[in-house]
Amino acid sequence: MAKRPHRRSSALLIVPVLLLLAGCTDATPNGTPVDVTLKDFSMTPGEQTVRAGDIVFHVSNQAPVTHEFVVVRTDLPADELPIGPDGLSVNEEWLSGMGEIDEVPATHTGTLALTLPPGHYVFFCNLEGHYLGGMHGVLEVTS
Amino acid sequence: MTRRERAATILAPGSLRLDRRIAPIVALYLVIVSVIIGYDARLISEQRGSALVINVAGRQRGLAERYEKDVILATEGVQTDPGDDESQLQTNAEALLHGGDVIAVQGADDEVHMRAAGTAPLIVGKVTEAQRLIGKLVETGNVLTNLRPSDPAYTAALQDLRVTGGQVTSVSNDLVGELTRRAEASFRRLVYMTIALGVIGAMAAVAMGLMIRRAAARSASQFRTLVHNVSDLITVVDPNGTITYQSPSVQRLIGLRPEDLAGTNYLDLLVDEDAPHVRSLLADVTAAPETSVTAEYRMRHTDGSSRYVESIVGNLMDDASVHGLVLNTRDVTDRKILQEELAHQAFHDSLTGLSNRAVFHDRIGHALARGERTDGRLAVFLLDLDGFKTVNDSLGHDAGDQLLIAVAKRLEFQGRSSDTVARIGGDEFGILLEDDADEARARALADRALAAFAVPFDVQGREVFIRASIGIALSVPGNSETQELIRNADTAMYAAKAAGKGRYEFFRPFMHAQALERFEVQADLERALVRGEFVVHYQPIVDFETREVRGVEALVRWNHPSRGFLGPLEFIPVAEETGAVVPLGAWVLGEACRQTAAWRAHHVGARDLWVSVNLSTRQLLEGDLVTQVRDVLEASGLDPSALTLELTEGSLMQDVDETVVTLRALKALGVRLAIDDFGTGSSSLGYLQRFPIDTLKIDKSFVDGIASDDSEDPALVRAIVQMASTLSLETIAEGIEGSEQLDELRSAGCRAGQGYLFAKPLQADALEAFLDAADATGPVDARTG
């Protein structure tokens, strides 16, 4: 008589446990890690070099506000990307985008897996005033 | 707990226990509901605040852009006021961080209080960043305001302003986005919680309902179990007595099933005479709800018997679950029967079933009180069995009890139903004649009562003759008391006994003196023997032919300290009654034998002297007479043939079979036997033949009659003497006082006798002198003594 309620409550416990397990199965993609730290308004390290192939960006947002993370392949220096008509953000249409993370919320780490051939790559946050405020960096991919 | 409270708990168990069980359920429900409502209310108030916060946060973006534009226009010489935007930006930023007054709607002047955007670190971080950027924006704006487009630093400063403005915009957007997300989440929670509240509330309500129902059912089943199992009867009726509920134990009590009773009237189950009482009781209880009453009445059983019950009746009309009068009924029949038995025992004699002494006295008291009002008289009879002790002692107490029961039946049969017949104690009965008793009616009843004793009683297969003496006292209207009447009847009864028994006497005032005397005698008798107050006198019995003293009759005298010498008639009846006659008789026997043996030894003329000693009925019937006589003869050394034992006809007839055995045993000892006072009793010739008698003593009354001319006594005496001669019995005449009597007796054939003509009873020394004189002068002269 007294034991029946326990069975019922244990059934209720199973649901959150399953949800936790589901979160763990979010497997980290394989590839050469590239760690980038975001702040208001900077990206560090400003320049790094990796070998071509599968690359995984680990973008850690340590700023209080949300940022984005855009990777483009360009020969231009990181601080000379073309600016759009608003005068406040990079004109991405003129660049060959490789991939991006739309939102890296404050205190979160976003990952972006890209297969990059050798070349000069620039990554930046393209929210209004962020790129111009200094949020950009260079990734040199060597063969 | 009082009887009433106990009854109330039994009758209404639901209310109390139900409440106690439901209280936690209700409390839990209230806690759940208030938690949900509190949480809901907080969410709603958060929603209201967050709308304003989002509005203000969103407004910062527009303000920053306007500030930027105003600063640029100012550098171009246009009249603008970036300071107003600046102050609003900073006020809002401060308010978003810490809470504060802000303008309610953009463009208006009303201010409202706004809470901080949030306390979550993420929100605080974003708001702080926004504030920092606004500070930077204003700083940049101030730098630019002081420049002109023509200045070399202008372009760079303008760029700074625009970039910072963009950053403010993006950060504000981010903040609004985050706030909006949170507001949405909060709203979703509100919706979910509201739904949950409804669901939990509904579930709690259902659960509570179920629990209440279960608790009520459990409580009801407990009540039912209680009510079904108790032997007490629980009945619920409406004020008219119609049964609405009946517990099953009714079947045990009156044989009807409870299901047959619903809808019928409770009063119909009662013994008819008791129904009105219970009906009025129900009315009383209906009228006064606060009271509970107890009633005792009878119910009819289907087997035709009736049961005594006791009910506690309570009013539960106001109790919704009962709505009726509740009778808690208990079978008290056994108790009642016991009570009645005890009452009967208290008022009745357990042996005969007649009223007892207490009731008799009580009835007399009531009759006297009634008589005082109506001037009526009443008669009190006291009836005492004559010789009951003899029956008891000779036949045993069981026989005595049987005789008492038989006597009681006969007496009861004689009275009218209005007369009270009672057993006063022992062998004494009382009869109360009520309703205008007078001497004639009392006489008639006394005659009937005595006549009832004429037929022998059958006791243990034996015929027992017993008689009764009755004393009657008539009340004097307005001047009699119970105790006095009983005392008077008692005195009259003793008078009847003294007058010869088997008769009745009305109380007369002079009897008191007699009774007193008798009482004194009785008291003194017990001491007299110890004190040696008795003496034996001897009356010579003389041979008519030789005039020699042949024998003496021993006669006891009481030398009473204050009254002088008393004759046997003055104390023997009392001694016979009390039993004192037995030791007295034994003493007389011993004394007479001792004295006679002495005379025979020491007086020449007394060598053949014999002594005649009277035996009482009790001596004859009680115990060890034969042993006693043998012992006395041995002790005194008297020749058995020198001892004559005298018995009355009456004592011989008490128990003929037993008496014959005793007499034969006495004869075997060698003593002689005589019938005293012959002719006065009712002995028949047949009996005379059966008893081993040697002598008949002709009663003085016959001898007295010889002298008178018109008497038939001479012929009777002659017949007695002839009959005695035929039976080879000697005759001795008693009470001879004159010489004509002596002549007549001699001519009738009688050989010996005693009387004043020869000598009166003499003390021992006087008799000695008498004997000595006789020795000296020859045979007794008729006039000597």
SS-based structural class of chain A? mainly beta
Rg of chain A, please? 20 Å
- Treating each run of at least 4 consecutive H or I residues as one helix, how many helices of chain A? 1
Q: Tell me roughly what share of residues is in helical segments of chain B.
A: 55-70%
Return the CATH architecture of chain A.
Answer: Sandwich
What's the overall geometry of chain B? rod-shaped
Task: Estimate nothing, just give the exact number of structural domains of chain B.
Answer: 4
CATH H-level homologous superfamily name of the largest domain in chain B: EAL domain
**Order of strands across the main sheet of chain A:** 3-9-8-5-6
Largest sheet of chain B: 8 strands, mixed, barrel
Give the name of the CATH architecture of the largest domain in chain B.
Answer: Alpha-Beta Barrel
Bin the strand percentage of chain A. Answer: 35-45%
Most strands sheet of chain A: 5 strands, mixed
How would you describe the oligomerization state of the chains in this entry?
Answer: heterodimer
Low-confidence stretches of chain B: 1-18
List how many beta strands of chain A DSSP finds: 9
Structural class based on helices, strands and sheet pairing of chain B: alpha/beta
Global Rg of chain B: 64 Å
Low-confidence stretches of chain A: 1-26
Spell out the CATH superfamily of chain A.
Answer: Cupredoxins -  blue copper proteins
Write the layout of secondary structure elements.
The complex is a heterodimer of chains A (143) and B (785).
Chain A: H1 4-24, E1 32-39, E2 42-44, E3 47-51, E4 53-61, E5 67-73, E6 96-104, E7 109-116, E8 119-124, E9 136-142
Parallel strand pairs in A: 1-4, 3-9
Antiparallel strand pairs in A: 1-2, 4-7, 5-6, 5-8, 8-9
Chain B: H1 3-11, H2 13-75, H3 82-98, E1 100-103, E2 111-114, H4 121-145, H5 154-229, E3 233-237, E4 243-246, H6 250-254, H7 258-261, H8 275-287, E5 292-300, E6 306-316, E7 324-331, H9 333-347, H10 357-374, E8 379-386, H11 388-395, H12 397-414, E9 420-425, E10 428-433, H13 439-451, E11 457-459, E12 462-464, E13 467-474, H14 482-498, E14 504-506, H15 511-531, E15 534-543, E16 549-560, E17 564-566, H16 568-578, H17 581-602, E18 610-614, H18 617-621, H19 625-636, E19 643-648, H20 649-653, H21 656-669, E20 672-678, H22 685-690, E21 695-698, H23 700-706, H24 713-726, E22 730-733, H25 739-748, E23 752-753, H26 764-777
Parallel strand pairs in B: 13-14, 16-18, 18-19, 19-20, 20-21, 21-22, 22-23
Antiparallel strand pairs in B: 1-2, 3-4, 3-7, 5-6, 6-7, 8-10, 8-13, 9-10, 11-12, 15-16, 15-23, 16-17
Helix pairs in contact in B: 2-3, 2-4, 2-5, 3-4, 4-5, 11-12, 14-15, 15-16, 17-19, 19-21, 23-24
